[in-house]
Write the structure tokens for this entry.
Amino acid sequence: MGTRLQGSVPGYVVTIGPCDATVKGALKKIPRLRLTRFGIIARLLKKVWPMTHKTVPNVVELDAIAWRILECLQHNARLSFAELGRKVGLSTPAVAERVHRLEEAGVITGYHATLNLAKLGLPIRVLVRLTIPGGDVQVSRAVSAIRELPEISRCHRITGDESFVIEANVVSIRHLESLIDRLSALGATSTSTVLSSPVERRAYHAKEMEAFTRNTQP
């Protein structure tokens, strides 16, 4: 879990994401629902009930204050507890306890600095689709190799003909060629260069999540 930082300088983001569930003292995997694609998956912990959450199977339905906390932290995760408390109408100890319980529940999974990689010397972002021949053994070996490549910032295993979609950042075309050569040793590659990112990162809000749920109901 990331350490909370004090101050009000933007550029830090809060991550909402998947986790396991603790049910009656046993650690169990949560089956994924359609709702989880939007990143709201939580552990069902006994101590989460003081947050006045309502629950449906495998999903924690947050109350208005919890959602307001998430919205504020997604906008600026460097808010101090005192500042956050003023925004949501809670005392500093009360909001600190709320955030702690959101972390325990796996709703908040971390706090991260957002970097401008071009200013760090990595101006070229690419998406590489990688197709792995063979079965689970080859895929497992590919995953291990991909994790060792420092240029790769994200990797998703996907459905369809390809096995993975990889996001990477490189210094130059020559650097890209070297990366593709290393990935080609794992399988067939197809590469696209990112020209721009109209949606770089999206914050989620209670009204949007409610709309998603309504739209996916039969």
Notes: Strands lie at 12-16, 21-23, 26-28, 54-56, 59-61, 108-113, 124-131, 152-157, 164-170, 188-193. Residues 1-10, 18-56 have pLDDT under 50 and may be disordered. The first helix runs from residue 64 to 75. The first strand starts at residue 12 and ends at 16.
